[in-house]
Structure formats: C-alpha cells, structure tokens
C-alpha cells in the first residue's frame, strides 16, 4: 500500500459521494464485497476515506490487502477507498479548493462544493430559452461575458447616462426629403457610402458607449458631408480621456457633453489617438490639446499619442439635433444625411444576441425578477430592412452598430424590430453636421 497509488487514473467507479478507488491487488484479483459505509476511517496518506468490507482470508491474508489499516476499534480491511475532496470534470480537488463557476466561486467544503449565489451576466437557461423559442433571434454564450456578474455587465459594458431633460426637450428636425420620397425596402449606409462609414469598435470593460457611439456617428457624417474628403474614424479615446467636464470616462457619460466636446474642442482620428490597451484610461489623463484660430476652428497643439500616425487634424461638428421619433423620418434622415445615434434601453437578454431580429424576451417565473436589469446604452443606426417572419408576416428591422467588437452579434451589428419603439430604440435619435470651414472645401 502506498499513498501514491491513489490517483485519479485509478478511478474505477463512482459513488454518490465521489469516486471509488481500488488498489493494485484489488484491480487484478477482484475486490471484496459489501462495503460497509458505517465503518469508515480517514486514510490521511492518500487523502481518502477507507471503508470496511467483507474479510475474506485467502491463504492467511486478506483477499484484498491493498489498504490494510489499523483502527483503534477494529482492523479495517480496506479494499475500497473513497477520495476526500470534491470532484469536477473528472478531477479531484482537495478540501478548501476554490474554483470559479461562471461568475460564482465555489469552495470545496465537507466534500461538497459550496458556491456563491451571484446572478451572472451569461445565463445558460436564458440562452436555451431563446434558442428553443420562436422569437426571431438566437442567443449565444459569449466567452468575453462569461464569468461576469449581471451587475458587472451593466456597469462596464454600457455607459450612457439617461438623457437629460435638455436633450429630450430639443426640437426635432426633419430631413428635407419630400414627404412623398419612396423609401427602399432595404437600406445599408455602407452600400450607399462605401468606405465612408465606420464599423464597430470594442469598448471592452469601459463603460463609454456615450463616447463610442458619438465618435462613430460624427466620423460617418463628416465623411459623407465632406464627400469623402475626410474619411478618418474619430477617436473615442480622445473623448474618454479629454472630455474633462464629463469626468466619468469609463464610468459612463452623457451624450450632450460628448456632442458639446465635438463642437467646441473636436476630436482627432482614431488612428492618431487609439484606444488604450487598459481602457481604464481615466487614469492616464488627456494626451491631446488644441487652440482656437479665433473663428471656432481648433488646431492640435500636441502630436498624436503614438509613433505611427502623424496627422493630428481636429474634426468638429455642428450642435447636435434631434430627429423625430417617427420611423419614416428616421429613415429619411439616415438615407439623406447618414447614420444616426440612438439611445436605447438594454435588457439582460440583449447581451446574448447572436443573430436575427432582436426583441426583448420577458420571462415570467417568480424567480426571474432578480435576473432582470435595464439600463441606458447608445448605438448607431445605419440602415433598415424587411424580412418574412416565421408566420409569413412582414418583420421590419433597423440595422445598428454596437460597440462590443465584431465577434458579438452580426459582425458587431444587430438588427432590432423597427416601428414599435423596441427597447426605446426610437425614443431619442440624435445627429449632427460636420463642421467644415471654407478651407476644408475641395
Ligand atoms: C460558455 O463559455 C465559457 C467560456 O467560453 C465556457 O467556459 C462555458 O462552459 C460555456 N458555458 C455553457 C453553458 O456553454
Ligand atoms: C477599472 O477600474 C475599476 C476601479 O479601479 C475596476 O473596478 C475595474 O475592474 C477596472 N476595469 C478594467 C477594465 O480594468
Ligand atoms: C410619420 O411621418 C409620416 C410622414 O413623414 C406620416 O405619414 C406618418 O403618419 C407619421 N407616423 C406617425 C405614427 O405619426
Ligand atoms: C418609446 O418608449 C418609451 C418607454 O416606453 C417612451 O417613453 C417613449 O415615449 C416611446 N417613444 C416613442 C416614439 O414611442
């Protein structure tokens, strides 16, 4: 008998309490019968429990002599041992071990895993529910969200403050297209303006959708309005690090301040001021500065904070304006002037979106309340379309760019029901003009 003999590779069968190990002799010649679960001792050398069994003498010796221990009460003839500790995925963990199970940590205590009971962002039951149902979209288990709590997901992956009363009371503008303009069934901004619109970036755990969506809409509109003269993507990091009156950075911010900054200070390109690897960039301070030429146009007074990009040109916008919440008006605005910003409400199921036309799924069991959450987010609407639903009905959708990287959703984009204010997507639509001076004209 040696303690090294008891290794997971020796597992021969399982028991409700764990794996049963058999020693060498026992494996070769067969074990004794009738394990007595009430007669047991801790077998420290092997970190195992040793059980009494039938004593069957075979030429003066136990028939199963592998584990032969002395117990003050009686001789234990032990051909079965049970490991002490906890099992998971075929592996034994010692007492006191801690493992992570999604967003919860589990400790092996008294041969059982005891887990914390936090609500996780990735909810496997929700994924299953969505994928089994006929909701028009499918859900996925995203590895980048696995291990986060629901709280953390909402805290780090969104980041737009609820719109201020000022923003909500802005006058609505309507595109100048005549009311009778025929709107196409499908519209995709990147087809109409190839190379002038910008795809989704990844905000990672930086709660700054206020900055990502604003920079992206501004960049698209400057490219479109300048007829392709200025096609650079604009730097969300510039906003996150420098929008000083908006000292939230990666801890949420307001859309009004972001547009204020675009108008008054302007942004350099994304290539000039790229995202920091550690997006907790509020710790870094602002790496860009500018001065006004007296006519409101700003010029950078610092080089780009990287060695590759030389152009530190500053891009500015007009004051933002609110587009009507009327579906047709939003479509006309996008088609005529480019993508728009939409402030939406994100529910827990949205994180799992993979493909299809998103609509919020409510589950109605008693427990479900603690799995639910709702918070403001900002995205970019880039087009629309129509699809035949499962019942043959027409399903209208928006195409929107998120800021969770291109591995999320449909290459970083998602489709969402159109015309029914799904998740408040039509509640507040914002856009702006590029601020191009005469010296910018070709
Ligand atoms: C989800 O993904 C994570 C990480 O990629 C993986 O460890 C986990 O087992 C998956 N969970 C389910 C329920 O598929
Ligand atoms: C950012 O910093 C906060 C507070 O120090 C921390 O809780 C959070 O995890 C950090 N986020 C990232 C992405 O490192
Ligand atoms: C939206 O505006 C269009 C005209 O652009 C109008 O025909 C339609 O009735 C409006 N819809 C609603 C719900 O007000
Ligand atoms: C969209 O829904 C929200 C919340 O229900 C509501 O406050 C808002 O007025 C709605 N907007 C439109 C255009 O229906």
From TrEMBL:
This is Tubulointerstitial nephritis antigen. SMART domains: Pept_C1 (SM00645). GO terms for molecular function: cysteine-type peptidase activity. It comes from Canis lupus familiaris. It is found in: Secreted. Transmembrane segments: none annotated. The gene is TINAG. Belongs to the peptidase C1 family. Residues 28-68 form the SMB domain.
